Please model this.
Amino acid sequence: MILVLSPQEGLRKRFEEALKAQHIEVAHAPDLASWTEQNSLRLPHLAILDISHTSDAGAALMEELDQTEDLNMLWVLMVSVPCTINHRIQSLRNGALDCLAADVDSEELVLKAQRLLGLCPRSKYAPPAEMTERERIVAMIQKSLRQNINVESLALALHMSRSSLQRACIRHFKIGPKELITQHKIQQAMRLIDLGSNNVASLAFTVGYSNVNNFISAFKRQTNQTPKEYMKTKHLLEEAS
Model:
């Protein structure tokens, strides 16, 4: 997965469209703090940092990444306008793998990203690496999604005490394990709706709810919409496009 950080919405969307067109998973945010607040369940393998608005060729951004748990070993590709030889040299000195022009051709961007993902130690295209604690927690939730997983069973599967799991979730996700499990279930339900699922009872079962009303309540707490309202919104947006 590639994380695109840029205050320029147009650049974020252009990069996202180019990468997703080649089936590369993408997350994006205006800055690192905004991405962290999203409580993303997936850690990126590569970051693309827009340094056009900086005066230090991204040095402060790199330092911010270094100080963020789980991201201090992240591979970084920088983009800038302009992208002079001095920008590239300074970017390399700051720890980036390369610096491209922000108006880089989409094909060049994709080829560069694919090449780096293929080399990245934590990429799905590379040989498996030992999972971090954060990744183990998320992987176990994903694996047990349809089994009505709860905090006790998650802790048992991870060979952790309930208190250790609580501390780990607060440290990595800023929320407790119960909230994390619910968040992941609802995100999966939203993805299934996006793919065309329109049966609320079936959705509830698929993401591990035996009680449909509990699923509807949890969905509304997470999204401020019921599943039916979310389906209707998606349908209207598709008709408008």
